[in-house]
Amino acid sequence: MAHTNGQVKEKVGDFIARRLREWGVERIYGYAGDGVNGIIGGIQRAGNQPRLIQPPHEELAALMACAHAKYTGQVGVCLGTSGPGAIHLLNGLYDAASDHQPVVAIVGQQSQTAIAATISRTSICRTCSRTSPAPSSRPPVTLLRCAT
User: Of 93-97, 101-105, 113-117, which gets the smallest average pLDDT?
Assistant: First the structure.
């Protein structure tokens, strides 16, 4: 819980962990990443309730949540970070949807100021795919057309 002007403010991760407990969720299958570290922190502050089970890959997290729903009759919950992590959840979510199983996917998002902060800036030509350094005022990757 964060303190502001003497008041206790609940963090988003704490709220999500509390709400999942209220809904009767006992397990979350998830893989840590920048976009979900706050949620994982909320689960840890709640004494690992619901229990976070971390598989070796996001895809396995979604498949485990689907299997949980199939074999227990409860809602399966998977957790993954944005971008490739979210895409890796799709196979398990598709399996759940095709078998009409209740699975919830929680997908995080990094802070907008953190996105592409460490990527070197490059210009890529749409025509010939040559790259060249771009001025730092441009987005991390700029698609340009060249004369070739």
Answer: 113-117
Question: Which CATH number describes the domain made up of 2-107?
Answer: 3.40.50.970
pLDDT, one tens digit per residue, over 38-78 is 999 999 999 999 999 999 999 999 999 999 999 999 999 99
50 cis-preceded (ω within 30 degrees of 0) = yes
Pair 78, 57: CB distance under 8 Å? no
pTM across the whole model = 0.70
- The size of the chain, in residues, is 148
Q: Which pairs from 109-113 meet CB under 8 Å and 24+ separation?
A: 109/35, 109/82, 110/34, 110/35, 110/81, 110/82
Helix/strand/coil for 125: strand
Please give the Cα distance from 122 to 98 (Å, whole number).
42
Can you give the residue ranges of every domain in the chain? 2-107, 116-148
Encoding tokens for residue 132? 């060249």
